[in-house]
Q: What sequence folds into this?
């Protein structure tokens, strides 16, 4: 089959590799009909997430048709159309039983490696996301092996198009969880979202669905800010305005009640920190790391929430803890417990509350994907979200 593979730092290619096979009785094989490139893939490209190996298949946002099931798979049958959460969860361990699928105890056989490289346990395994997160092949390919097939894949039994449901695999639940965990008081609270990438876009719309009185989105890419404006958000270009002043002025001096960092560790700007020292040594790139998170803490209103869907790894230092402590902020963060949200959010799509296709700016084949990785990385050509058709 054809697949997009990691070939080294900042190198992505298309290769022909063997089709995946069932390895365990609880596996299924999915023929992928649509897949997407995510901001999280850029961390792999940068080398910010260690333990990728040449030839590893990328991709964790995908959906398709079940073509083979292991003998212990009960819920799925050949021909089912499914979306697959980006995290792999066993469904039976204590965290899974509590709905904390992204913290699954059993899906990542390499959790000791994650502890050694990241200094802490990493939670569940992920598709296409390094050996530290389990070494499972990803879904920017024609087929994928899905472990724990009775737990993750969610059947789509309506006639919604792939593009309307594809983002249930990651960025819609991720934006929704980031907003939900703020505990927004409907009709009162102001929510600020740093980052107008795909995750930030779904975060802003989720905050609106959860009743935020006002949503402010901060970025520097004009097309991305325009996309947020089209949804009725106020926007701030952090290269043109002093963000902290603008946020105070927009909120009567109080600051936003909740601030969401949908940027993560590759934030532009200037701020001290040690998150990516290793990645900087490896790549020779400079990551001015934690600016958005610092701005979030500095701007948040007293008693508010700083919610962090943006990915951080390793050690991060020099955060304004005095401000956080003084204002009594609460922090919420982490990988998304995607499994929890697919059903309810599919309901919102079916009810017409949101049409997730708004975020798609580019559609491409697997052969075109390496070029599209560059476009997405550079945020050129108005690129916000790339969807790939593995069979085109
Ligand atoms: P993206 O790279 O397309 O978007 C990031 C945006 O942040 C860009 O538009 C960039 O211009 C902007 N930005 C950079 N520095 C900024 C700053 N200082 N202030 C404001 N904006 C700034 O990525 P994406 O796909 O939207 O993903 C965003 C983050 O969410 C990534 O870290 C990704 O790994 C993470 N993510 C997390 C989960 C999860 O489970 N928690 C799931 C998916 C993605
Ligand atoms: Zn993703």
A:
């Amino acid at each position: 089959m054809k697949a997009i593979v990691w070939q080294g730092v900042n190198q992505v290619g298309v290769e022909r590799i063997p089709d995946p096979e069932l390895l365990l009785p609880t596996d299924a094989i999915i023929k992928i009909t649509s897949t997407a490139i995510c901001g999280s893939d850029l961390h792999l490209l940068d080398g910010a997430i260690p333990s990728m190996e040449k030839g590893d298949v990328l991709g964790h946002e995908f959906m398709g048709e079940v073509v083979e099931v292991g003998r212990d798979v009960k819920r799925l049958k050949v021909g089912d159309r499914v979306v697959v959460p980006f995290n792999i969860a066993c469904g039976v361990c204590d965290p899974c039983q509590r709905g904390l699928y992204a913290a699954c105890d059993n899906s990542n056989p390499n959790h000791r490696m994650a502890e050694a490289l990241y200094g802490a346990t990493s939670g569940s395994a992920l598709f296409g996301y390094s050996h530290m997160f389990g070494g499972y092949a990803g879904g920017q390919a024609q087929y994928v092996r899905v472990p724990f097939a009775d737990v993750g894949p969610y059947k789509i039994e309506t006639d919604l198009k792939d593009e309307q449901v594809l983002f249930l695999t990651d960025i819609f639940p991720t934006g929704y969880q980031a907003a939900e965990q703020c505990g927004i008081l409907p009709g009162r609270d102001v929510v600020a979202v740093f980052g107008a990438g795909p995750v930030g876009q779904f975060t802003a719309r989720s905050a609106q669905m959860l009743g935020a009185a006002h949503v402010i989105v901060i970025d520097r890419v004009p097309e991305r800010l325009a996309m947020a404006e089209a949804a009725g958000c106020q926007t701030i270009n952090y290269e043109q305005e002093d963000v902290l002043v603008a946020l105070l002025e927009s909120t009567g001096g109080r600051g936003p009640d909740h601030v969401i960092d949908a940027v993560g560790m590759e934030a532009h700007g200037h701020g001290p920190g040690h998150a990516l020292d290793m990645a900087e040594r490896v790549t020779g790139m400079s990551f001015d790391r934690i600016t958005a998170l610092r701005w979030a803490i500095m701007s948040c209103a007293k008693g508010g929430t700083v919610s962090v869907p943006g990915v951080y790894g390793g050690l991060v230092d020099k955060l304004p803890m005095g401000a956080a402590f003084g204002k009594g902020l609460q922090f919420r963060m982490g990988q998304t417990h995607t499994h929890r949200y697919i059903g309810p959010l599919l309901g919102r799509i079916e009810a017409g509350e949101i049409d997730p296709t708004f975020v798609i700016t580019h559609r491409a084949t697997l052969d075109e994907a390496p070029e599209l990785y560059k476009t997405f990385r550079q945020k050129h050509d108005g690129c916000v979200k790339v969807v790939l058709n593995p069979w085109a």
User: Anything to note?
Assistant: The radius of gyration is 20 Å. The domain at 172-333 is CATH 3.40.50.720 (Rossmann fold). Residues 115 and 205 are 35 Å apart (CA to CA).
